[in-house]
Amino acid sequence: MLNKKNKPLLHKRKEGMRPGALIYVGDSDCEETRIRTHIYDSEGSTTFEGFSMEYPEKQRWIEISGLSDIKGIVLVAKEFNLSNLSLEDVFSTDQRMKLDYYETYFSLTLRVLDTPKKEEEQLSLFVGEGWVISIVEHASDIFVPVVTYLKDTQTKKKKVDAHLLFHALVDRVVDQYLVRADELDQLTEDMEELVVNTPERVTAPDIHKLKRKILHLRRITLPLKDLLANLIRTENIELGKATIHLFRDTSDHALWLNEECEMLRDTVSGLMEVYLSSLDVKMNKIMKVLTIISTIFIPLTFLTGLYGMNFIHMPFATQHWGFYAMFLCCILIVILMAAWFKKKRWW
Amino acid sequence: MLNKKNKPLLHKRKEGMRPGALIYVGDSDCEETRIRTHIYDSEGSTTFEGFSMEYPEKQRWIEISGLSDIKGIVLVAKEFNLSNLSLEDVFSTDQRMKLDYYETYFSLTLRVLDTPKKEEEQLSLFVGEGWVISIVEHASDIFVPVVTYLKDTQTKKKKVDAHLLFHALVDRVVDQYLVRADELDQLTEDMEELVVNTPERVTAPDIHKLKRKILHLRRITLPLKDLLANLIRTENIELGKATIHLFRDTSDHALWLNEECEMLRDTVSGLMEVYLSSLDVKMNKIMKVLTIISTIFIPLTFLTGLYGMNFIHMPFATQHWGFYAMFLCCILIVILMAAWFKKKRWW
Amino acid sequence: MLNKKNKPLLHKRKEGMRPGALIYVGDSDCEETRIRTHIYDSEGSTTFEGFSMEYPEKQRWIEISGLSDIKGIVLVAKEFNLSNLSLEDVFSTDQRMKLDYYETYFSLTLRVLDTPKKEEEQLSLFVGEGWVISIVEHASDIFVPVVTYLKDTQTKKKKVDAHLLFHALVDRVVDQYLVRADELDQLTEDMEELVVNTPERVTAPDIHKLKRKILHLRRITLPLKDLLANLIRTENIELGKATIHLFRDTSDHALWLNEECEMLRDTVSGLMEVYLSSLDVKMNKIMKVLTIISTIFIPLTFLTGLYGMNFIHMPFATQHWGFYAMFLCCILIVILMAAWFKKKRWW
Amino acid sequence: MLNKKNKPLLHKRKEGMRPGALIYVGDSDCEETRIRTHIYDSEGSTTFEGFSMEYPEKQRWIEISGLSDIKGIVLVAKEFNLSNLSLEDVFSTDQRMKLDYYETYFSLTLRVLDTPKKEEEQLSLFVGEGWVISIVEHASDIFVPVVTYLKDTQTKKKKVDAHLLFHALVDRVVDQYLVRADELDQLTEDMEELVVNTPERVTAPDIHKLKRKILHLRRITLPLKDLLANLIRTENIELGKATIHLFRDTSDHALWLNEECEMLRDTVSGLMEVYLSSLDVKMNKIMKVLTIISTIFIPLTFLTGLYGMNFIHMPFATQHWGFYAMFLCCILIVILMAAWFKKKRWW
Amino acid sequence: MLNKKNKPLLHKRKEGMRPGALIYVGDSDCEETRIRTHIYDSEGSTTFEGFSMEYPEKQRWIEISGLSDIKGIVLVAKEFNLSNLSLEDVFSTDQRMKLDYYETYFSLTLRVLDTPKKEEEQLSLFVGEGWVISIVEHASDIFVPVVTYLKDTQTKKKKVDAHLLFHALVDRVVDQYLVRADELDQLTEDMEELVVNTPERVTAPDIHKLKRKILHLRRITLPLKDLLANLIRTENIELGKATIHLFRDTSDHALWLNEECEMLRDTVSGLMEVYLSSLDVKMNKIMKVLTIISTIFIPLTFLTGLYGMNFIHMPFATQHWGFYAMFLCCILIVILMAAWFKKKRWW
């Protein structure tokens, strides 16, 4: 369920480790590290493979994916004076979303949702004067639009500083959440239609699975609201006016997410009730059929049994019309019973 | 359900877009833009089709419906120095209710409920010194009373400034919510009567649909309370005393809405339980009938079966009164059984 | 349910009305207005029919019931400089409880519970220096004890000012809530006893009706706590020490009310579960009877059927003891079956 | 249920009474008043029957039980300048827990849990400089340990002032709550074992009764937390350091109580679900037996019925082995059916 | 359940005891006290059996397990000027997590989770300038990694003060919680798979037991969040920057724990619903089989019964093809019935 088979072992593996130790405790098969440096200013942007400190006067974004090469990552971190403690979180890939302020930089840890191609992973962002470092566990194309955005002509006109880039990265992740929420909304509506129209094609575990997905998204995105509010109001970093405005927008999205998850949860809980009631309704129908058939034929069977007895003297038994009278009697009883059921609105 | 088939695609479509881009991301078939300018002062009001900046000394309300003509709307916005960011929200028609303060104006985004004629839509209000801009997706007659109110003789005596007009517009939207809440209250009571008196005419999906409508209204109106409280307490804008008093009233309505939705949700949840219990009661009745019939006739059938056996020597089989004795015996059993069921209060 | 058939039309009727308009929007058949003036000081109190401003140096309580004569009420209001806005709330008889401060007076809107004689109604209180105005929709004897209290000899000794009178009026209303809560508590206990002892005399709608009553009281009294806290802590009005102490007591009652409603709601929800379980238990009993009867007699019927077949050669069929052997065999089976059910604790 | 038959009449009886009136509104049969005075200092303590003001320099604890002699109690109250308002609460024995500060003293109202010997009652504590008054409705031995504690040699060494005594009294009451919570915990575990192992010996009303007891304790103890926090933080009284530390401990117990009640409520709600599921499981078993028996024997009965028909020409009817073949055929069907049920894991 | 058979007696036993009395009130069989002293500085660490005050200039950690030797523990406590009140909590082994500040030291009370070898127990930590005392009820190896950490070469380089050691100890306990939460997460997922795939191998009590474990962990860890927040923000103690950073990390874990427990509880509640629905589905299947068999064969039995009657004149009874025609008729009815059930999608 939810592809996290290995996760429960995580804290076990980490148990008793010295705080600040740089050991990767995520899934066993760690992806190869790949570092790319994006250098940009108002003129445009260039992308290098590998880490580079060229053009020190320009803005810099170090994009790292894969955590296998711990030493390489530490080297980059040293260059920007990242503390060991903040690096440790990068390698403990089960962190709750968090925002930490350090002397010359701040860090934000987010969770990137799973896609069909890759599992859910952790994104660590470090932001300082003129530089941003982003570290993810698996290479993916989630930040491609940001790269395009840096190269974009329209962007060139306004100065994109580290904070704006930081927002663009965060926005990409939050957009993913919104899309996921929409998908779950759609799934919930589809499930609703199924439950209402063809409940026999739904099972309780289906609804439960949907609920779990909603609970999971809710749990991941729950801290987002407070975190962004903190980021906007803090005095530790000076975000530009434009950036604050953009983050306020992202913050609105976070609120929307919380409310949406809340409503979806309520709706799916209600769906389960509707599904259960459909089982009851079906049962009622089944029992009605059984009861009608039994109630009609069991008395009749008794009646025929009566004349099936081997007494020597039975009334009418020797009459020619005896059998026909009996048969008529039975048909009469059936008709009366049917009328009675009709009156009781049993069909 | 709830006419929002297309919505889930919204965030997908918007994903990866540069913030501040003015692209309409709402439902595909966008209504034609129609702009009307209302100019008014203490003497009365005039309405022009199209945008007009005549009589600059007077109060001005620009009423826009339909988002197809983005350029036209941008032109109006330029005239009042609206920032691109605030305009972007107009075209992203899935915003959460929000209140934003800018240097010379503030904006409020609300949701206008669906009517039989049109879908739920977004209303953006921009309010500055002496002017109000209202932008909706679809033309509707929701603001007709406000236009009348501006023309009204009684109004002329007191000065209607932009803030008072702004309140009148917001009040119209909130009134809609109140009416909807009343309707849902009525629907809930009707449903209650149905469930209590004729549960066979109700289905669980009916109750679920009602619950979803309530949850939807609740979700839309949830942010309203905080938003209005913010508007009243803020120091960013100076609302007049009268306006504050009016908004306090609207704020009371928002509180009433929240409590009403809460109570309706609880009531409908209870209704579902009552409905489910009615299924159980019905089942009990059906089973009782089956059990009574079976319990009476199955033993009798056995009894007749006994004398239906082809043993050559059976007691009483050759007696004249044998059959009649058996028959009496059966009737006796029926009477005893019936008495026993009566005693057990089974009917 | 809850006698509010007409209410849902309320907001509809009011929709689009100009704020501040004095039009009665409550139930259609509006009661005739009756005004009484109570004038009192430390010497005692006198009551006049109609409005009177005699003895301006004394304390004054204007008691108004019935909203048909709007002009008359407005006249009284003018005398005490009540603003139009605060008067409007008097005629919109669906207000949420609220407390408003004006320059020379403050107003409190409460809901008076329905009695067997009259429906739930709204009470508006206006309190200024030396005067109190109380306006209700229907004449009732709820304030009779307050009138007696004013005339009371014991009261004469201590000075009753407007605030103390105001408290006495509020206290009467809150007392009503407490009595209602006690009644609902009693009803819940009665229902409990019924559900536990004779569940067949209870129906789910009965329990639901009780729950709705509790939810209704809860909703009405929910704002009371905050409102009284506000009244006690505010700096807008200077309540005397004794008055504050009395209101603190009333505030304790409001807290008690909230907790009581909360607990009653939980209890009634639990009751529904108990009731549903009683249905299940009953079903189990019914099914047991059916199963026992069927399980015993259906095999026996087969057995007799076996010897009812018309084969010419059947073992023992020609023996004298054949029938008796068969009969014994059947009785043996019944006994064995009964023992087996006994062992399985089926009865 | 919960021995409060008379309570619902309480507010009715009190309705319309003037605030500050000293009339006992509790249960009808009021216990005789008994006053005891404990005088103590660092040397030891003496106990007098009746009220005594001897040794004015020493600490004093007036222990009153029974509310019949209102005048006597008022006399004591006068001696310590207790206000009428604070005395009124003593006689309204349905108060919510509360803490009130007066000029020279403060009062605390608590609820003392019912014991097998006496009903739940109210405890009023008044604490001033050098004196404590405790008033309960019924004489009980709840404060015996406190008396012992005053006489205790170990206590003599440290100065016990009024505040420490006050804490000792409160602590006794809170200890009672803790013991009750433990008892309910034990009852819940016992119920759990019953529900899990022998659900047929449990009924839904049993579980409901347990839940009500938990809800009742929860409701009584809910205000305790805030009350003690208020007591510790207030600037109205100067508690000694030691006293504050002791109250902090009591406050921790109050928090523990809240959490315990919360958890017990959740557990008992879960228990009800488990119990209901046990009913379903039982039903399934019953139905299985019925279905297996019916499914095997009804077809067989048909088969024998077939050869029970009175056609003159029936195949094999005249064969010697006919009956035996038929019998074998039946046994074969039984075996096949049994195998099929086995395969379907029906037993 | 949960191995706390003896606990409910705890508060009973403690009832009426003088506060500050040092009497062990935990489980009856108290473990023998064992004291170990760890002395360490930047050079490394040494461990002595028993209490030792050697090397007063070095950091000191007194590790005590077992509470039988009260006098011995009091002796150690005297050495560090621990107050009696703070010692009392050590021996009342049912404390809620708490943090207390004293003049020269502070104390933290935590709960250590049960392991297969030992029961849940209480950990008391006392931290002062240069010393830490840890007291647990049972000897265990939970702190072995901390001892190793003190001896570790890497540790030597940085100065480990009392606060850092304190964090290491707390971290060990919180790590246990995290591991337990992971285990419960795994158990929940396993249960989910069972309920979804093989519901017949699950019982409601199994799910309930899991829920109780989750509720228990939730309750224990609930206060942790506030406690750590208090520790970080307090001005009573001066934690170093590094320590604060480490505790912030632990605090994040506490938040994670709360959310995890919340989600697990929701999930398990949902699981119960899925399980109950599986019972209903199974019932439906059973009833379908019964109904189909009954509905097909009961009418047939009637038909055969009809020709089983002993009338002398029955149509076709003397025909050669009579029996075969009847047989064909029966087969036809079976086929028609089956087709009808097929059409109704009953199988």
Please explain how this structure is put together.
The structure is a homopentamer of 347-residue chains. Chain A is an alpha+beta fold. Chain A is built from ten helices and seven strands. A seven-stranded mixed β-sheet of chain A has the order 2-1-3-7-6-5-4, with helices on both faces. In chain A, α6 (162-197) packs parallel to α9 and α7 (204-221) packs antiparallel against α9 (241-308). The relative contact order of chain A is 0.08. Chains C and D meet through α4, α6 and α9 of C and α1, α7, α9 and α10 of D.
The side-by-side strand order for the widest beta sheet of chain A comes to 2-1-3-7-6-5-4
Euclidean distance between termini CA atoms of chain A: 43 Å
> Describe the biggest sheet of chain A?
7 strands, mixed
Average pLDDT number of chain A: 87
- In the predicted model, the low-confidence regions of chain A spanning at least 5 consecutive residues are 1-6
**Structure classification of chain A:** alpha+beta
Task: Give structural attributes.
seven-stranded mixed beta sheet, disordered N terminus, homopentamer, 347 residues, alpha+beta
What order do the helices and strands come in, and which of them pair?
The structure is a homopentamer of 347-residue chains.
Chain A: H1 10-14, E1 34-41, E2 44-49, E3 59-65, H2 70-79, H3 84-91, E4 98-101, E5 105-112, E6 121-128, E7 131-136, H4 144-151, H5 153-157, H6 162-197, H7 204-221, H8 224-233, H9 241-308, H10 322-343
Parallel strand pairs in A: 3-7
Antiparallel strand pairs in A: 1-2, 1-3, 4-5, 5-6, 6-7
Helix pairs in contact in A: 6-7, 6-9, 7-9, 8-9, 9-10
